[in-house]
Design brief:
Number of helices: 3
Strand order of the largest sheet: 2-3-1-4
Largest sheet: 4 strands, antiparallel
Mean pLDDT: 83
Distance between the termini: 37 Å
Number of strands: 4
Amino acid sequence: KDEFGSGYRLTLVTTNDAHAIAALRTFVRDLLPAANLVHAFGGRMVFSVPRLGVPLASIFRDVAAVQDELCILDWSLSRTTLEDTFIQIVNADELETAATATSPDRS
């Protein structure tokens, strides 16, 4: 898990309002430019955050500071799980296999 893990998962829950969701995505993009949106459904968003150079204390401070302003109902920051790591490895392998299968033979 430590070798292949991708860092952290930032989960944010806001109201199911387009403006609130857009504002929260902008906030995360500004706070953590390297974060990637893993999935979103309604007002729940999960971001993958690389572990290198992540200022954890500032994440906690900054999210807490805008919690009311951005209508954040619930949030969490956790290390990726073993399941997350496994899924990431399998997805990467599937992408590599698909790319290899569709690329022309250059021999």
